[in-house]
Amino acid sequence: MKARVAVLVFPGTNSEEETRDLLVDCGADARIVHWSEAASLVYYDAFVLPGGFAYEDRIRAGAIAAHDAMLDAVIEGAQAGKYVMGICNGAQILLEAGLAPGTGEIRRPTAAFTRNAQGHFICERVLLRRTVAATRCAIVAALPDDLLIPAWAAHGEGRLAAAPSHIEELEKGDFIVFRYADADGKTDAHLAPQGSALGAAAITNREGNVLAIMPHPERDAWNFNHLDRSEGADPLAPSGGSVLFKSFVTALERL
Amino acid sequence: MSTRCSSSNFRRGPSLRDLAVAELDDEALRARADALGLALRVDELRSIAQRLGRAPSLVELYAFDAQWSEHCSYKSSRALLGRLPTEGRDVVLGPAEDAGILHLGEHEGERYGIVIAHESHNHPSQVVPFEGAATGIGGIVRDVLCMGAEVVAVADPLRFGSVDAANAHQRAVARGVVDGVAAYGNAIGVPNLAGDCYFDGEFDDNVLVNVVALGLVKESEIIHSRVPRNGENFVLLLVGKATDASGFGGASFSSVALDAKESQSNKGAVQVPDPFLKNVIMRASYRVFSFLRERGIEVGFKDLGAGGIMGCSAELCSAGGFGAEVDLDTVNVAVDHLLPEVIAVGETQERLLWALPEEIVDEVERIYNEEFSLPQVAQNARAVRIGRATAAQRYQLRHRGELVMDVPIDFLTGSVRDTLPVEAPMPPTMHRKHDLLCERSLDDLFHEILAHRDVCSRAPLYRHYDAVVRGRTVIPRGEADAGVLAPIRGSRLAFALSVDGNPRIGRLDPQRAAEHAVYESVRNVVTVGAEPIGLTDCLNYGSPRDARQYGELVAGVDGLARAARGFGLAFVSGNVSLYNAAPSGHAIPASPIVACLGRLADVSQCVTLPLKEVGSHLYLVGETQRALGGSVIASILALEDEAVPEIDIERIVAEHRFLLAAASEGLLRSAHDISDGGLFVTLAEMSFGCLAARRAPIGVELDGVAGWSGVGLYESVFGEWGGIVVEVAQRDVERFEELAGSLESVRELGSTIAQPLLAFDDSAWEIADLHRSWARPLEELFP
């Protein structure tokens, strides 16, 4: 029996289809759940919040969506141990909802992905490396150490920001699951294209069942997305960033 | 049939104001028309009054003002456009509706088409750059959506003025336009796949913002922009944003030259974008499409653009052979007490119009208003019934229970045509007998060309755009000569898109500028290994009332026609943007901008730009020429009356056929065409590609000019005579040359080397140094 994964769509979400498609190709029974179907969310084993501009990024990216009825089900699920992954705008929503890093109260964010250092949207290729132990976050547990994961940074608000004391807490508590890396796998704060604190690309919560990741692995996830790296291979086969989705599905199957 | 409208069925009332055309002499009539902001000419005003047999109402006048504007009627260009080829093997739908459709291929027994539309939003972008550019994307996306297609990509050819540090206004316009394109396209979640950008002081008074959108549709599920044959009494269902006072007079505003003094009042004619609402409308419409598929019902769907509710409903119904009646009181409005002419012809954004049989209207309304909750997404946005298609061949508008417009629909939407005096352009024909003598050193010129605004990296601009949303992008901007996208899940079918047009050529030789625009867009598509299947055009010119400027348009259309026929391609969609001139009368350079769509049967055969391996052979496919007209080096050295390079289409078609065969056999490791800046720039960019791919740069050793060129040194390495450079691995050389057969224009240029150098004769440039000159220049404009 395949794990049932809900891909949430808020007004303004724009990456639901490729996110659903990649989850399906990685072995999940993934369905798009629209904001008018919030009641059905309780029947799902896991939640993925895809990219976009939910509620037009009013106030702050993710701020309104964090108070949407769909988040009630996500929060309840996360607290019951269900796996939750937010990508880009989805990550912003999880921070606004207080699910990641989860060091404060629900819907009282202690950190945010906020305005890029350059002050505008950027779209460029990035490499990510896991910088915590495999056991720290179940969603990424199946990834081999030191693997470089290709993804696209495509956001206007992807710079992790928090009070200095919180940043220290995130560093000490191994909340920073992925950092931006160079081709040699070196991670360094200056490699974050938007100036994210600690060079952070993704953060988890204390329990490790929530992942808020800013760049898009699902946009460099099939061989046809990077022909120069996948010569000769079946262009339609998952590769590259799909390893993160495979790890997510593997974690669900282990439950 | 009587065209007179007796006053008995045209009731008069307090809400109705008329213009007593017959009672005014020409001068007084012109003055009244100007006071009312009508662009209609006096003779047009008189013909309207005569045809109606009475004093036309203001609502009627504003309606004709929009419908008969250049923007809607193409009255100066329609006759010319008949010269363009519009039919061909891959044409599913030619230029008749909101967008054209080309056949992409078959997957699991279904025929798939690519919907393509191409427009300009020049005047709005000059006045309010952010909103003007954003609504340009918003409008072109609706043109594709209303064909029943899923929108899969956009592109944005841009022409800015001089953006030197001193020119603060032009810099602000350029930034505003890029921010507007980014804000809209990124939010609706459609990748920006292609585009180009030139800077030229001649665009200071009139920037060009062209937009292209592509959609995917099953050919069996195309929705047409007309009421179907059985459509009598079909309900007209308006969908989208609440109508407000924005965009009133937009169509006629875009059909006159801009006057700086009026820039404030002109702002009222620009629409306000809402990409957030559009994102939801698109997804709701996709849901409606699948509902219609289940029910197998034929309907009409059209985007509201120029002329607003009136223009859209009139064209939707008349295209199906029907009249229309619309009740303006049923329209969902954002503010009360809007004048009837504002509701009727205002160009509020994010609206579309369905023509549906009564039995399915409730369900379509439910999808928009409840399932996708439009009224909660934006203030009073919704789907509402506003009228119906009628057998009577009249167009009728009611407001407050009164008939405020009642005209023969064919008179309103029928084609008006102007015949205008033409003065043919005189392009330079000087052909130098000797090679260029130049005291500037190669090194010095090479770096200046790499840093030239028309040559340097565009990354600082396009990194503002989401190139990869939807996850189907194969080649984003900057990684090859054309953008490539695989639109169908589970299929290897892919398409390539390139948009081109060189203003440096446009100012010299309008006809050849058009030919080169076609050639370069086709060349770029071939360079990534895709077979060209069709074209669109946007003709950006000055005033048709100026014989010389009109002559440039005529020459441009002839150039497009000649080149397209030569390549065996058709134009399936297009747009004409005239009056791109300053009040002084000074016009922009002739700017025909062409988009070429290509097909890849198997996405894995697509060819990218970065050099792949050391020890490969580099070949030039193409012929060098001495002519430097329109090249970057000519502008740097201020070379006057140089002829523009010729295009030997027959030879080029053979070269392209050969290259596509080589690509399909996997013989091309990398490829890049020769355009702005010439061959040295092409080779340098192929080497830079390695850096972008995070690989150590592969260098190039170029053989002496004598081996591959019949012209002088500078013409050979900096000339812009077209052609394509390809990388062929040692193991494939034999097969490659066998395939080239008797083609004379295939010559070995040099080879790839392990050292990060571009080596030529006794000079050698560090790739890293060249990259420094090329990568940075636009960063100060787009930080």
* Beta-strand percentage range of chain B: 15-25%
Q: Biggest interface pair, residues each?
A: A-B, 43 and 46 residues
Helix content of chain B: 25-40%
How many angstroms separate the termini of chain A? 12 Å
Quaternary state reads heterodimer
Decide which structural class fits the backbone of chain B: alpha+beta
Q: Counting H and I runs of at least 4 residues, what is the number of helices of chain B?
A: 27
Low-confidence stretches of chain B: 1-8, 11-16
Rg of chain B (C-alpha, Å): 27 Å
Give the tally of β-strands of chain A: 11
Your description of this structure?
The complex is a heterodimer of chains A (255) and B (783). Chain A has five helices and eleven strands; from the N terminus they run E-H-E-E-H-E-H-E-E-E-E-H-E-E-E-H. By secondary structure, chain A is of the alpha/beta class. Chain A has a nine-stranded mixed sheet, with helices on both faces. Chain A has a two-stranded antiparallel ribbon with strand order 5-8. In chain A, helix 1 (16-25) links the parallel strand 1 (4-9) and strand 2. The radius of gyration of chain A is 16 Å and the shape is globular. In chain B, strand 14 (394-399) and strand 15 form a beta hairpin. Mean pLDDT of chain B is 92; it is low at 1-8 and 11-16. Chain A binds chain B through residues 9, 11-12, 14-15, 17-19, 21-22, 34-36, 51-53, 55-56, 118, 120-124, 127, 152, 154, 182-183, 216, 218-225, 227-228, 232, 235-236, and chain B through 179, 182, 186-189, 276, 279-280, 283, 370-373, 376-377, 462-475, 486, 489-492, 494, 602-604, 606, 608, 610, 612, 693-694, 783.
Structure summarized in a few sentences:
Chain A is of the alpha/beta class and 255 residues long.
Write the layout of secondary structure elements.
The complex is a heterodimer of chains A (255) and B (783).
Chain A (H helix, E strand, L loop, with lengths): L3 E6 L6 H10 L3 E6 L11 E4 L19 H11 L3 E5 L1 H8 L14 E4 L7 E9 L17 E8 L3 E4 L1 H9 L3 E6 L18 E5 L5 E4 L28 H13 L1
Parallel strand pairs in A: 1-2, 1-3, 3-4, 4-11
Antiparallel strand pairs in A: 5-8, 6-7, 6-9, 9-10, 10-11
Chain B lengths: L25 H10 L6 H11 L5 H10 L2 H4 L4 H4 L9 E3 L6 E8 L2 E11 L1 H6 L1 H17 L4 E6 L2 E3 L7 H21 L3 E3 L2 E3 L8 E11 L16 E6 L9 H4 L9 H5 L7 H21 L4 E4 L4 H11 L4 E5 L12 H6 L5 E6 L1 H14 L2 H4 L4 E9 L3 E6 L2 E7 H5 L28 H9 L8 H4 L10 E3 L7 E3 L8 E7 L2 H4 L3 H18 L3 E10 L6 H21 L3 E7 L13 E10 L16 E5 L10 H5 L12 H16 L5 E4 L5 H14 L6 E4 L10 H6 L5 E5 L4 H8 L5 E8 L3 E4 L2 E4 H9 L8
Parallel strand pairs in B: 4-6, 5-7, 11-14, 19-20, 24-27
Antiparallel strand pairs in B: 1-2, 2-3, 3-8, 4-8, 5-8, 9-12, 9-13, 10-12, 11-13, 14-15, 16-17, 17-18, 18-21, 19-21, 22-25, 22-26, 23-25, 24-26, 27-28
Helix pairs in contact in B: 7-8, 8-11, 11-14, 20-21, 20-23, 24-27
